[in-house]
Amino acid sequence: MISIAGVHKCFQSGEQTVAALKGVGLAVQKGEFFVLLGPSGSGKTTLMRCVAGLEKPDAGRIDLDGETVFSADPRLYLPPEERQIGMVFQSYAIWPHMTVAENIGLVLTHGLSKIPKNQVKERIRHTLNLVQLDGFETRPARLLSGGQQQRVALARALATKPKLLLMDEPLSNLDARLREEVRTKIKRLASDLGITVLYVTHDQVEAMVLADRIAVMALGEILQVGNPYELYCRPANSLVAEFFGSINWLRGKVVEKNRVETEIGIFVVESPLPRSGGVVVGIRPEDVKVDGASASGENCFDGGLVSATFLGDQMVFEVQINDKLLTAKAMPDGAKPGGKVSVHFPMSKIVVFPEGGTGFIY
Amino acid sequence: MRGRWLLVGVSAGALLPVIGLLLVVFWMGFWQSGPGEPVAYTLDHYRAIVTDAFTYRTMLNTLGFASTSVVISLLFAVPTAWLVERTDLPGKKWVFTLMAVSTLVPTFFTAMGWVFLLHPRIGVINRLFVDWFGLAEGPFNIATIVGMGWVEGLGLSSLAFIMVVATYRTMDPALEEAARVHGLKMWETLRHITLPLTFPGILAAAIYIFTIGLSAFEVPAIIGLSNKIFTFSTFIFYKIQPLEELPNYGVAGAVSALLIVLALLLSWWYFRILRYSSRYAVVTGKGYRPKLVELAPRARLLAWVFLGMFFLMAKVLPFLLLVWAALLNYFQPPSWAALSQVSLKNFYGLPWELLLAGTRNTILVMIMVPTLAIVLCLAISWVILRSGLKWRLAFDAAAFLPHAVPNLILAIAAVFAALFLLGNTVPLYGTLTIVIVVYTISRISFATRIINNSLAQIHPELEEAAFAGGLKMLQVMRKILIPLLKPALVYAWLWMALLCYRELTMASVLVTNQNNITLPMIVWGLWLGGRLNQAAAANIVILAFMLPAVLLYLTFGRRSRFEEAL
Lengths: 362, 566
Hints:
The complex is a heterodimer of chains A (362) and B (566).
Chain A: E1 2-13, E2 16-28, E3 33-37, H1 44-52, E4 59-64, E5 67-71, E6 76-77, E7 85-88, H2 100-110, H3 117-130, H4 146-158, E8 164-168, H5 176-193, E9 196-201, H6 204-210, E10 213-218, E11 221-226, H7 228-233, H8 238-243, E12 248-256, E13 259-262, E14 265-268, E15 278-283, E16 289-291, E17 300-310, E18 315-321, E19 324-330, E20 340-344, E21 351-354
Parallel strand pairs in A: 3-9, 3-10, 7-8, 8-9
Antiparallel strand pairs in A: 1-2, 1-4, 4-5, 5-6, 10-11, 12-13, 12-15, 13-14, 15-21, 16-20, 17-18, 17-20, 18-19
Chain B: H1 2-28, E1 31-32, E2 40-41, H2 44-51, H3 53-86, H4 92-102, H5 107-118, H6 124-133, H7 145-170, H8 174-181, H9 186-215, H10 218-224, H11 232-240, H12 249-278, H13 297-326, H14 336-339, H15 345-348, H16 352-385, H17 392-404, H18 407-422, H19 432-455, H20 460-468, H21 473-502, H22 507-510, H23 519-528, H24 532-556, H25 560-564
Antiparallel strand pairs in B: 1-2
């Protein structure tokens, strides 16, 4: 449905040039819910605006539904109004001088797929019904609440029945409770309509709830593409690992094919190791096992318990091994170990990356 | 505690004269007295202006003049603002700088230039038409309402530009992008989204310009007065400085009172529209810049031709004509024959002694007025924003009055008060002091607004921390507030100094002799005396004097502060 290849984009900011996209390639399938995830400044919004035609890449090629909408060579650029897409903006961009019906109607009567005048009213009613705003037709847009504006923006984007829907952080201006509610509704609506969605967010939970597949972006590049499970359990580099939930990092160096000497001792790992040099070893807190008994076996270490915090659905431990503080999480079972503990790092859960890899944050 | 009351006292001391002058205007309208006669009160002046057909003609003139200047200024300002804010036109930064400098060029200067261009008899363009097409007389006449509105409109278009640009800037560009993405073409987006959304802002600019046009003095005085075409401001001026009869302060007061009421109503409407338009203003949290409209090479060329024509007509042509006129004994269109007569005689013949006195006075005014205004308005702003006084809203309203009341009327009221109220007890009439006092009063609104905007951004806890640390009010002012406000104060000081330099409107009433003459008044005197070429030469000299001050302003003043001051 969307095919992006080698897209570059630079911005002139005063004297200096900032590269927002550095050769991005991507393929989104028909009917897929695809999320672009990344911190601010990662280039995810720029990429979406390139797809919409609001930004012109400096190089590369973009195809939508088999039609080339941009190519640097031969020079081709289809303006946004000819790309037949729907888009929800972060600020919603609801036209404040119009009513709800006028906001949707303008798109229906002037958009590319113009529909006959006598059907406009019915289509507006139908679209408002989709987003559960029945009867809001005559409401002036500026009197809508944030949540309602968000739904009108969605209705406006869906009114022309586009094959592709772009959403730029559509939930970031809603309060937390509403965000969860709308999230589920968007997910259901997209799968009911069978529409392809390209969705930009910086919130990894949102991405995991919504996405069929996620592309993690940083500094104008795509770090990894995959479904939420793959990204969480098999991150391609430390940045992706860091972006999905918290993780314990240990510095180390490879001593044998599958052995790493770290700050707290020797680790035996599954993943294929780089031949030599410094590495970082990562393990998520929920995979770290804390036990009252004394340590024995591979990847088991003696440590001291610094704190144990009960959070209702989980216990959070802080353990100290050789001056190194690590976090562990477990289901609460009423027991509250104290003093000396043994800490176990299951081999299958350990990830290892070369040190100084992509933007590693220690 | 003493320091706080001192600040309140200083503000009250600054604002009471404002209210006083306003009362004097209304009082003037009922006042009747001849030389040596006892003072009496009468409704005759109001009766006179209501029954006189001349009043209505003047009113029509004024409305026509102000409307023309609105149309002309927006005609240039709106497309320019759109080009600068929404397209990828190269060299946009220069447009901003040129517009900022343009607002500083004295209006009397361009008005004289346009007389040389379009005077029915001597105007260069008219002469060209006569010579080329064998017409009996030139087709254009600058000495008409439309002609004067054209010159005023050109002069005000840079101000209009700055206001309209602000409207474009506060509009969320995503509103336009949403239209494009969902299939609307560029012109459909302009029609359905951009124009309706920017309309309130443009309307507000129109009202603002109209209010200025209503009481504008320089253009009607330079072009209209000698041709007996009056607007309200020149009519009032003529009543107190007539050529034949005795000054008639009563009628001037009655007309002024009407004009003040009109101006206050317009100001009220302006703020209403402004509030209405700010409902649409969205501050986007997002750092991205809107996609700029890419101009095709031909459109780009067209845009540059348009901008070039504007600057040519607004500033360059009038300037060239003044230089040409300054070099000639009597004015004639450029030709080989005329070129041989070019000389610097006009410059030698200038009243240099007077110019020297004028320079001394002007420099004194340029230093005293901004300094006084800043000191007073610091106190006023503090009272309005920080004192928590019950009466602070009254201070706010009073500080706004000098903006709404036409400056010419302020000056007339001051002269009247100096002549008939203070008389010999406080001899102010014809002194430089009255010039400084009235100029300062007229700048109170501007300075208060600038300082208010900056002070509002300074968290009160910064002062409270100083008070808690044991500093007294005036120490807090000196050690905390003034250093924090410094950029705004420097900007305001420079801007006011430049406005003082070019001020002619108030000077035309306040300056009565060689002791308090200012530079623009020398030009004005030469012009009224019919020595047009010498006036042109004096203008060039004055502009040359102004250049260092403008450079200073461009170095230290910031463009964005313009918008705050409106």
